[in-house]
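Honest question from a wet-lab person: if I give you the sequences of every part of a complex, can you actually get the arrangement of the whole thing, not just the pieces? Trying it with mine:
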Amino acid sequence: MPIASTLKVLIVDDQNSVRQMTRLTLEELGIRQIYEAENGKSAFQTATLQPVDLIISDFNMPEMDGLGLLRAVRGHQAIRKLPFILLTGRGDRELVVKAAQAGVNNYLVKPFTTPILREKIEQVLGKLT
Amino acid sequence: MSSFEQLKHTFFDECSDLLQQVEQGLTDIREQNGSDDTVNAVFRAVHSIKGGAGIFGFDSLVGFAHVFETVLDAIRSDRLAISPDNVDTLLTAGDVLSDLVTMSRAGETPAEDYGRDCRMALEALMCIEQGEEGEALGEDFADLDFVPVPFVPDEEEESGHVYEISFRPGAELLKKGNEPLFILRELRALGTLELSADAARVPPLSEIEFDQPYVSWTGTLKTSADLAAVEGVFDFVSDDCDLSIVEKASAPALALPPDAPTPVPEVGAPVMPEPLPAAMAPPLVPADAPKPVEAGEAKAALAKPAETKAAPPKAVATTTRVELEKIDRVVNMVGELVIAQAMLGQIVQDLPEHISGRLLQTLDEVVHHTRELKDSVMSMRAQPVGAVFQRMPRLVRELATKTGKKVRLEMSGENTEVDRSIVEQLADPLTHIIRNSVDHGIEKPADRLASGKSEEGTIRLGAEHRGGRIVIEIKDDGAGVNPERVLKKARERGLVSADAQLTDDEITNLIFMPGFSTAETVSDISGRGVGMDVVRRNIQDIGGRISLKSERGKGMTIQLALPLTLAVMDGMVIRVGRETYVVPMSAMVECLRPPRSDIHGLVGTRGMLRLRGELLPIVHLGELLDVASTESDAGGVVIIAEAGEDIRFGLRVDELCGHQQVVIKSIEESYGSIPGIAAATILGNGRVAFILDTEKLYEMAASEPPAPAGAIRSENAAFALGN
Amino acid sequence: MSSEPLKLGATLDMGAAEGLLLELRQRLQFDEPLCIDASAVETLTMPCVQLILAAAKGASVHVADPSEAFQNAFADLGLDWPRDAAIAAAREAAAGTEAPEAATDEASGIVPDGDPLGESIRSSEPGEAAAMSKRILTIDDSKTIRDMLRMTLIDAGFEVLQAVDGQDGCEVMDRETVDLVITDINMPRMNGYEVVRNLRNRPELRGLPILVLTTESDTDKKNLAREAGATGWMVKPFDPDRLIATVRKVIQ
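Yes, you can. This is the full assembly:
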C-alpha cells in the first residue's frame, strides 16, 4: 500500500494550467513529490534519470505525444513497468484502445474530480495511505 | 489570490499564446505558407483551450471550441480539404474564440447565440449534427471493456538484500507510545515483507494487561535498502525489544540456470505469491549482462528508497513566468548598484596615485560586470514587439471590411525586442497609425484599379534595431498625403499664414499639429479626435521620435524611433556655468571645439556653426536654460546632437566632464514636466543632475522669438517647424 | 446468541484499550458467544488487537463487518481476526427476520450511554465526524521552530496546538486531548525531560506518543529522553519530509 507522501508522480502536459490543476488535485490526495514535464520527450528523460513511481500524462503534446511516451517507457528496460495513466478527452475512444494495446495501466477523462483521480490511481497502485 | 484563482490567471495567460498560435497558423495557411504541421499546431492550440476551459467550467467556450476543434481535426486527417472559403470561416472562428476567451476572462456569460453564425458555418463544413454528447465529469467510456492494470513489481528484478528479521517488543514498548503496527508498516514500505506473527503468548482476557505486548514476529524482507535503513526503522524501540536483523545472500536472480521455470528464493520462505508467466521464464537479465545495481533504481511503487532528500529537477522547458514586480525590483537594485559604483569611482579618483592605481583597475572590472548585469536584467524586461503587432491583423481585417476596402498587412521583425514598458505604450499610437492608413491612406478598390494599382492595398509593419534604438516602420501603398488639401486646411485653421511658402515635407509635417484632421467626414473609426499630435506626444513620452514621409499617390511611410531601454543609460556629463547636466549618449553624434571663425551670429540662444561645409544651427544651452556661462562666446564645446530624424544641431556648453552610466530617475511625479528636461539622475559625486531632452531643447530654441538680425532669419528656416 | 453485537468505536488506540478490556470482560463473563461489529473502526492498534485475540482464546468470538482499517491493521500485523461460523450463520438468520437493530443508536461509542466508564475512554463520541485530523501539541520556546513545525504539520493535515515551554505544555495537557506531543529539550521553567516524566505519570495518557527535538549527533540526549519515557526523537534542523515521516512512525 503506497504511502501518498512518499509517492513520486510525474505530470506530463504541455499546458501549464492543466499541470497545475493536476498538481493541486494530487496534493489533495496527500502526494507531495510531484515532477512536471511539458512534453513526452522531456518526460522520458526525467523518468530515466530519477526514480518515478507513476506517470500521469496527457495525450496531445508537441514533440512526443502521450502514446509515444508510453511506448518509449514500455520499451525501455529499466522503466518498462512504470505505472502510466493517460489523460484523455471526451470522445477519445480510439485513443484508449490504442493505449490499452500499448500497455497503459489506466486512463482518465478530462476534466476529472479528486475522488476520480484517487480511484484511478488506487486501481493501479493500491490503496493510498 | 487563492491557488484556484491563480490557476485561472495562468490559464488565461496561456490562452493569449494559444490564440496567437491559432491566428498565426491560420494566416499562414491562408497565405499558402502552411505546412502539415501548421494545421496540427492550430488544432492542438484549440484543443488545449478547450481542455482548460472545461476545467474551469467555461461551458460556452468549451462548446464552441469543440466544434472548431472537430473541423480542424477533420482537416488534419485529410477528411476535409482547405479552401479559401473555409480558411475565412476558420479565421472568423478564431476571432469568435478569442472573444469568448475575453468574455470568460472578464467573468461575463456570452449570449446564448454568440457566434452562432460562425458555429453553424463550421458545422455545415462537417455536416455535424446539432447537440453534443453530455458526458459527466471524468466518466469513462462504458462501452469499452477497459480493465485497469494494477502495478505488480517484478520481485526477481529487485536487486539488493534479503534480511531475516525477528522482533519481539518488550515490556516498556507500548507504554512509551510506540506501536508495532506502524513499525511493521514502515518495514513493509522498504520492499517486500513476508511476515509471520506469533500470538501464542497472548493470555486469556482475565489475565491480560492492556499495555503489555504479547505478540512477536519473524519475517523476511526483500529490499534494495541497506542494513542501516532497515535498522533505522527500529530506532525508537531498539532498547525496548528483542531485535535481530540478519542479512542473507543477495537475491539469486542471476544464479539461475537458463531453463529454470520459476526461481526459488534461497531462504525457504513461503512460496512466491505470483508465479512467473511462462513468457518470462528465462531470467530477465542474461547472465553476462551487468546487474542493475543502482540502489533506488527499483521502480516498484512500494519500494521506498532509504532517504529521499535531494530536490528533483523539474523537466520543464527553458522558459518560465516571473512576476513583473520581481524583475522591476531587480532592475531598481541594478540601478542603485550603478549609482553606488559611480560614487565609488569618484572617491577612488581622489585617492593618491599609488593607491588608486589598482583600485581603478578593479573598479573598471566592476563597471564592466555591472554593465553586463544591467544588460541582462534589462533584457529580462524585454518583450518582442510582436506582442503588440499581433493585434494588428485582426484590426486591419475588421477595418477593411467596414470600409469596404481590400487591405493586407505584412509584418516583419516581430521578434525584435524592446523594453516591456515601451511595448505597452506602443499599442495606442500604432493602432491609430494603422487605422489612419486603412481609413485615409488606402483607396477603395475601384479607385486603386483606376490609378493602375492592384485592388488590394498593402500595409507593411516592420521593426528592427538600428543605431541603439528600435525603429518601427509603417508603410502603406495608399494615396499618401495630399499637400494641397493639407495646406488648405492648415490655412483655414490659421495654423499657417496665408502666404507662407512650405516645402512638401513641411506640409506633410503639418499633420502633427493639434486638432488637425483632413477627413471630410468624421468617420467613427478614426474620428475620435485623436489626432497625429497625440500620437506624437505618446511617442515622445516614451523617449521616442516619429517622422512621416509621404509621396502623393504612392503612399506614406511613418517611422517611429524608440529607445531600447529606459532605466539606465550612458550619458555625457556636461557643465554650463555652475550647473551640471547629462546628455544622453544616444542623442550625441560628436563633440568638438570649433574655432571661433566657424561660429556665426551667436545671438541670444541661437547661432550657426560651419561644419565640414555645412551650416548647422547651434543652441546656447546656458542662454536657453537661463544659466550664466563661464566661457566666452568663442569658447566652450559644441555637442552635435540629434533632434529628430535628420535634424542635427549643435549644443554649446562650457565643458565636458566625462561620460558615465546614469540611472534615470523620473521627476514627473515630484516636479511635473520641465521643458527641456527628460529626467534626473544622481551623479558619482552624489549630486543631482538633470538629463536633457535634446529634441525638446531644439524646439524650445526654435520657438524663441526670432533674433532681430535679418541675416539670421533665413538661416533660421530650419527652425520654422514646430510652430 | 442473546446479547447484541459489541459495536466498536472509531478509534481503538491505547487510550481505548482499558475501556475495551472492561467491556469485553463484562460481556464474556458468562462465556456466551460474542459478535463484534467492527464496521466503524478507523484506527486500530496493537493493544486493542491483542484484546480481541485474547477474547477469542477463551470464548467464541466473531468479528462481523470488519472495516477496511480493521482488516488492514490485522493484515499488516500478520494476524487473523477471530471468525466463528456458527455465530456468523446465526447473525445472517437474525438479520433476515428481525427489525433493524437498535444498536445503530450507539453509532460510534463502545460504551452505552450513561456508563460511568465512558469517561476514561478516549475514543470518539457519538456524533463526532468520522475521520478527524490528529492533534499534535508542539512545545518549544523558540517561535521560529514553533512556526516551522506548525506550517509543516498543518500542510500534512494535522491539527496543531502550541505551548511556549514545559510548564505551559503541561497546562495545555491538563485541558486538551492530543494524539502526539513534540517537545524541545532545552526550555525555561520546565525542560523536555521533565515534560516527558510529567506526562508519563498520568495514567490516562498511557501510550501517548511523545517525541523530543534533538540535534543529530546528540546520543546522550536521545538516551536520556528514552529513559524518561519518550517515544522517540525528531532531529533539528528538520526538513519537512523527514518530519512527517517521523510523525508517521508514531501516529497514523
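Two things worth pointing out. The interface with chain A takes residues 68, 72, 156-157, 241, 244-245, 248, 252 of chain C (CB under 8 Å). DSSP finds nine helices and ten strands in chain C.
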